[in-house]
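**Fold tokens**
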Amino acid sequence: MDRKKETRKGVPYKELIFVGIISFASDLHVAQREEDIGFYAGFLGASYMVGRGLASVFWGIVADRIGRKPVMAFSVFSVIVFNTLFGLSVKYWMAIATRFLLGALNGFLAPVKAYSIEVCQPEQQALGISIVNTAWGMGVIIGPAIGGYLAQPVKQYPHLFHDNSVFGRFPYLLPCICISFFATLVFISCAWLPETLHKHKGLERAVEMVEGSTTQESTEPPKKSLLKNWPLMSAIITYSVFSLHDTAYVEIFSLWTVSSRKYGGLSFSSKDVGQVLTVAGVSLLVYQLLAYRQVNKILGPIHSTQVSSALSIPIIAAYPFMTHLSGIRLDMPLYIAAMLKSVFAITRVTGTSLLQNNAVPQEQRGAANGIATTTMSLAKAFAPAGAGIIFSWAQKRQHATFFPGDHMVFLVLNLTEVIGLVLTFKPFLAVPQQYK
């Protein structure tokens, strides 16, 4: 792989296409419908994150031991099995169990980030990480569409599906089967996926015999404990704070837009909110594919993270004042703000991911990404509940003197953003050697 990177002049499109397809297949989940949203659905969504958080470090270590390809292939296979079983669930405990196992056995995120770095030259690494995030964005857009169009087919398409059919008994099986079918094609294509991590023990012994063991030892510094590697841990902590903020933002944005104007919201329908999020998602894909590489080339991962975080603050602060607008005067600033917020969020995520992956040697990259995935998953499991509690509390203080109602909600969001921004500066953030 090293020789291949040295002789290749262009972008490794084949490998990055594999990265994008695998990330897309692993992140493609059916959206929960409106009648499912509530107390039980919250536990259902959290079960996936808890499962992923508990197992991510394990899968990262496995990827460092046996290679990236086997773990990514197994993760896609787990999507095939447990996504189908989720569609066949008839009891709540079955749905919880399958989602938890899907999260625990879908260990793709740690090795796929390492892989996207390892197939690229240093100047192309930003593109590699952005491919992973772009594929995730596509899953966020297309997943809800699949769920919306194919869930409960008996009710939506009574002329094609009957009550006595298997889809009458399992109303969410059809979208799950479609996703599992796509994942099956991806799993088969993994046969052509080149590996990036190899352990050539015989070759290493031969090199030692020719060059002497002292030369080998002098060129390879001893590995640091990951927990004592402050450039890594500071980047992971910063990444987790931003993940907490972004997940809470999505939850609060949806709640705020659909809530009544008398409670400081916009009185949007679910369809209206979906349109805003879809446009924001499309802008995210365009930015990742066309613009992010230039942003990273000019500013680098640290300054791009700082700039995007700072620019997010006035956007969030502007949201509460949009309740005084209506019609096109509301739609234009709302859509622009949502698009910019998505672009800034993905810039931060990609920048901190680059810092994490360049803070460790290749042999520790899977485990390092596993730690980052664990902390991120725990943040994403906590954020929706915390955001919901803050939103409910804020709605009860519509006439307070100090930041009434929705103003308080977005103030709390901004405080989280400010904490993340502060963490991107010295002395907290330790910069990997290549960025000094």
